[in-house]
Amino acid sequence: MANTKIIKGQVWVSGNSLIQDQTLIGPNGATSNNTVALIDNIWEDLLSENGTVQRDRNFWYWTATQTNLDDEDIEIRVEAPRPKDGLLDQYNGDPNQAHSDWAKYWINKFNEVAERYQQSYTIQPKEIVFQGTEYIEPGTGNVKKVEEKRVENNNMGDITNLLINLF
Predict the structure, then answer these.
(1) So where are the chain's domains?
(2) Distance between terminal CA atoms of the chain?
(3) How many CB atoms lie within 10 A of CB 118?
(4) Distance CA 161, CA 124 (A)
(5) With left for phi above 0 and alpha for psi between -120 and 50, is residue 86 left, alpha or beta?
């Protein structure tokens, strides 16, 4: 295929695949657009010991090649998604059962959140303090004092109850 060029376009996750738009330009100038699956099943790749996902601190990504405006191929990073519901259930919260670093990372993250929740029995603070203040009432010049209000978590329940406690 002499003088044939492939322009590699946008890369994204669609469904269970990592796909890329590509344009083939033939020797006579004819073009053909196509969508190519770079990874057929991203979940298998993410759970596999030999997966292609990479890590930079807490950022999980795949690398792909894309054509820039100068007609050069450059390497880009495509962020890997967080686990979908039920994907890591097979490991029962044990990172040692997982084969990939990505799965171990997310199992540990979920375990940390669960542990913090059990320690405090809440994600919200146990008490919210609304600071008191003073202000001058417009029109009258009177000094108004707003008392400090403390609302405990067990009194709140949800935002509606929080507002009822305040007003």
Answers:
(1) 1-81, 82-123, 127-166
(2) 76
(3) 8
(4) 14
(5) left
Q: Which amino acid is at 32?
A: S
Write the DSSP symbol of residue 124.
Answer: S
Spatial distance between the Cα atoms of 90 and 86, rounded to a whole number of angstroms: 8
The per-residue pLDDT for range 63-86, each reduced to its tens digit, is 999 999 898 999 999 999 999 988
Paired tokens of 71 = 């007609």
- Rounded (5°) CA angle 55-13-113: 50
Both tokens assigned to 91: 């490991």
- Ramachandran region, residue 133 (left: φ > 0; alpha: ψ -120 to 50; beta: rest): beta
pLDDT digits (tens, 9 = 90+) for 83-118: 998 889 999 889 999 999 999 999 999 998 888 777
Structure-token match 């084969």, residue found: 99
pTM higher than 0.85? no
- Determine the residue type at 77: R
CA distance 40 to 162: 48
Q: Is the distance from CB of 120 to CB of 126 less than 8 angstroms?
A: yes
